[in-house]
Amino acid sequence: MYRLMLHGGVHVLEGTFVNGAFHKPLFFFCQTTMSTETDETRQSLLLEQESRHTANQHTHTEGAKMPNRKGPSGASRLKKCIGLFFEILYWLLTLILVQFWKACTAVALSLMLTYWLWGGWATFCLMIAALIGIFYNLQDSVLYFPNEPESSRLYVPPATALGIPFEYVTITTPDKVHLSAVLFKQRAELAPGVPTIVFLHGNAGNIGHRYMNLHELYAMCGCNILAVDYRGYGKSEGVPSEEGLYVDAEAAVNYLHSRSDIDQSAIILFGRSLGGAVAVHIAAHRHNRDKLAGLILENTFTSIPDMGSVLFNLDFVRWMPLCLIKNKYFSIRKVSRIQVPTLFLSGSSDELVPPKMMQALFRICGAPSKQMARFEEGTHNETWRCRGYFSVIRQFTATVCRPGSNVMEPSPSPTPGPSLADYLGRVNMQHQDV
Questions:
Q1: Which domains does the chain show, CATH number per domain?
Q2: Each residue of 266-284: b (16+ CB within 10 Å) or e?
Q3: Could you say which of 350, 391, 405, 413 is catalytic?
């Protein structure tokens, strides 16, 4: 900034140089002389000049920051498109990598890249080991379906819809997992004298999806029912696994033995599909024999390797080393140790588990009394809709319950439903006493 002050009634010049040019000169004419100016007047003039200089600088700065009102150039649009492309690509790669790392060992990707770049037998062997790890860990995702139908982990239909007495129960397992369960009890004066069934469902959904079936079982067979969601299913905590499901089922049986309002000598374990494999394991253990009055198995399989060979049409699956099979459920090796009366319910039209597997389990079963009921039109999940299904179960519970247990006549359905006669029919029965 330049200042030129000519005292004695001469001009005062103020201005600034910006980019080599002199801008906005201000001329002031002073009518006073140097001799008549006081110190106060001089100070006021200097302050006024400084404030004007600051205002000029602010004006230039704001002018430099004024946005360009012209539309974006072609180069600018191209930059934005390229940036958006890389953002999408980054998001997709992140999603793929996250899913990859969830399913395999932490070094699988680096090993594959290392082998692709440099090769080497050691890297190849490590890569194969990592791929085996992927295969091993992915087995859970093709066996357990707790979220099918969608939102099955978030929503369990309320039991109030059935219109029968019930209570919500939380069962704590030895490894501190809290399981969600519902206990359907007969009327207070009858509940202590009737059988109680522990119902173990299949590998998908939650107990709410079985309420219609349980309603008919309750009404037609006159029993109490404890329906349990495994760990990782419905509102239960944890993650499903073979050992975990065994612990859950045993905890459910022990829970009933802790209650004084039911007949502890008339507890029957009922397993359907995957639940059947869990029930076989529980019933085959010596320390559980005195806890169970009977066992019911419906449309269950011999082992997971056998099921793998059927579902994927690959015979070599059943001959794979067991160390590569995460979930085995070898019912065929355990069923011979069962020492409680057992009822087999087999749907001859089962589209998932071959009925010959049920026949194989029946032949090998070591129960002192065992029974096979075949339903020609029974499918994997809908055998319970076949004629005669509930009458067979009721006859079985009447046979195995110890003296003192009261087997009720079928109670009227709390809500309109089929009568007992609708469920009675000719059933192909096979009975064997050992």
A1: 2-64 (no CATH), 78-142 (no CATH), 159-433 (3.40.50.1820)
A2: bbbbbbbbbbbbbbbbbbb
A3: 350
Judge whether 23 counts as a catalytic residue.
no
Contact 388, 353 (CB under 8 A): no
Whether residue 419 is predicted with pLDDT greater than 90 in this model: the reply is no
C-alpha to C-alpha distance for 37 and 54, rounded to whole angstroms: 25
Task: Count H helices and E strands in the chain, helices first.
Answer: 12, 12
User: In this prediction, what percent of the chain has a pLDDT beyond 90?
Assistant: 53
User: CA–CA separation, 191 vs 14, rounded Å?
Assistant: 106
Give the Cα separation of 428 and 388 in Å (integer): 10
53, 140, 380, 411: which is the annotated catalytic residue? 380
> Which listed residue (273, 346, 405, 413) is catalytic?
273
273 in active site: yes
What is the share, in percent, of the chain residues with pLDDT greater than 70?
Answer: 68
Token pair, residue 267, equals: 């507890």
180 in active site: no
Say whether pLDDT at 100 is over 80: no
Segment 306-357, tens digit of pLDDT:
998 888 877 777 777 888 889 999 999 999 999 999 999 999 999 999 999 9
What does the alpha-carbon distance between residue 194 and residue 220 come to, in Å, rounded to a whole number? Answer: 13
Integer Cα distance of 183 and 214 in angstroms: 11
